[in-house]
Amino acid sequence: MNLNFKHEWIETNVGVMLVLTMIVISIGGLVEIAPLFLVKSTVEKVDGVRPYTPLEARGRDIYVREGCYTCHSQMIRPFRDEALRYGHYSLAAESQYDHPFQWGSKRTGPDLARVGKKYSNEWHVAHLKDPSSMVPGSVMPRYPWLATTLLDTSDLVDRLKAQRAVGVPYSLTQAEYERNVKQFGEAIAKQLHIPNAKDNLVKQATEGNYDGDPSNVTEMDALVAYLQVLGTMVDFSKYDDDYFVKFR
């Protein structure tokens, strides 16, 4: 009876209710925030993660432009059913060079965090042109124009410089190039050197032949190149789940 009286008294006194509410919120906030000051980094230390090549970066731009993220997440949650369907749960390290990152929970279509190398280039091209031809009953719209639209590279350098401004380690100077050689290896460092971006883009598209037509570079080349790299950078066989726990 006494407890009920005190509870009623709190509820009928706005000032007391406000103070007690702020105290509870503050305690909850401290419980959530304080541990972050004790963790050196929430980005896992793994080998293989690198920025996108110029072609992959343009493919990602097209992916965002066409609104693919509204139906496909790139976040596998640490649940058994998701691991069985998609693979290892997503790491923060895998999205450290994504601006903006493509995590989320909206899935009209399947999660694409590990779609890279799961299907052939030909499959992706056919799927993007006519999704229902590859996945009967699919509600995904068609994107046939990607195969006939030449990739615009006129602003490629500016796009890479914009990513560089927010921390993606594309290089402009020789010193920055040498830094990338040490961090990613010479082959990747060459791909990340902005002065050679257009040549590197054309070379990757021609050698990869993502759209099935090596005579030109299309938006289909770029988008398929991007899809084929998703989830392929980290070799999870080198790590066990206990390794990642310390970064949470």
Computed structural class: mainly alpha
Please state roughly what percent of the residues sit in beta strands, choosing from under 5%, 5-15%, 15-25%, 25-35%, 35-45% or over 45%: under 5%
Query: What do we call the CATH topology of the largest domain?
Result: Cytochrome Bc1 Complex, Chain D, domain 2
Number of strands: 0
SSE pattern: HHHHHHHHHHHH
Q: Could you name the CATH homologous superfamily of the largest domain?
A: Cytochrome c-like domain
What's the tally of helices? 12
Instruction: Tell me the Rg in angstroms.
Output: 23 Å
The largest sheet is: none
CATH architecture tag of the largest domain: Orthogonal Bundle
CATH class of the largest domain: Mainly Alpha
InterPro entries: Cyt_c-like_dom, Cyt_c-like_dom_sf, Cyt_c_oxidase_monohaem-su/FixO
Keywords: Heme, Iron, Membrane, Metal-binding, Transmembrane, Transmembrane helix
Transmembrane segments: 15-39
Protein name: Cytochrome-c oxidase, cbb3-type subunit II
